[in-house]
Amino acid sequence: MSGSKSLIASRSSSILTIKEKMSSASRLTETHQKSMHAGIIEAEMLRIPEGWFLMGCETGRDDEKPVHRVWVDAFELGAHQVTNAEYACFLAAAKSAPPPCWNDSNFNDAKMPVVAVSWHEAAAYCDWLSQATGKPYRLPTEAEWERAARGGEEGTLYPWGDAGPESVPDYPKRWKNGPEPVGMYAPNAYGLYNLGDNVHEWCSDWYDAGYYGRSPERNPRGPVDGKRRASRGGSWRHHIKVTRTAARSSIPPELQYADYGFRVARSLDR
Asked: What is the pLDDT of residue 38?
């Protein structure tokens, strides 16, 4: 598998307080209740501001170089990875077979991220959600994902700075046999949970290790074709469970891995 399996986690070094957990759960519940009558659960979406940022890492892998300035238009990104509860609505509507691991107790909690979905299945979910809601859902680009993961920070390995894995709350105790329910720990500066841990997240781009040397400066969307789709973020099953902000990964789009999930993005009206 291409890409680093190194480190990123949330901006805060402390677990969410009970009050914060209740507030987060309340927001997600309100969002879910608004859509459940239609057999849909829409994730909480957060606005990521437009702007320039430095994409890549000079001390990272070769595919993270050169560091280059990128402009990303404002967009919205799911506060958390798509959950089993959300994906179940899609399966029921599409009358589709569930992905592998669906009935495995290590993966089937309703609030866990759905796993073992191929890139094609993740894209199909976005298409279905767009048609069902009339809103332009899609997978994020690599550039959008990295801008969101940085949370407005520049020049650091992780959103909180350059501290290593030991700074992640409860790191030795987490992700033993599978992912954890989303939103258990503090979000990054943009309010995004698990952006860099729990599961790898599919991006819309085709993957090309040398793409940074020729990518456009504004809203890069990856090469026009390829054999592997890009992904970002860490994985519960790797030795290092979370990843650096700039780390890239990829696999062929038809594969269904137990540490692969996704979160949705949404375009804004211009």
From this structure: 61
Name residue, tokens 């860490």.
234
Among residues 155, 150, 199, the alpha carbon closest in space to that of 179 is found at 199
DSSP label at 34?
Answer: H
Residue 146: HSE in the Cβ half-sphere, 13 Å Cα cutoff: 32
pLDDT along the chain (270 residues), means of 10: 38 38 44 55 96 96 98 98 98 96 97 98 98 97 97 86 84 94 94 94 98 97 98 92 93 98 91
Amino acid (1-letter code) at residue 183: G
Rg of the chain over Cα atoms, rounded to whole angstroms, equals: 17
What are residue 47's phi and psi, to 5 degrees? -80, 125
Q: Could you tell me if 241 and 197 are in contact, meaning their C-beta atoms sit under 8 angstroms apart? A: yes
- Residue 233, sorted as left (phi over 0), alpha (psi -120 to 50) or beta, turns out to be left
**pLDDT score at 21:** 40
Contact 4, 247 (CB under 8 A): yes
3-state secondary structure of 33: helix
Q: What are phi and psi of 52, to 5 degrees?
A: -90, 150
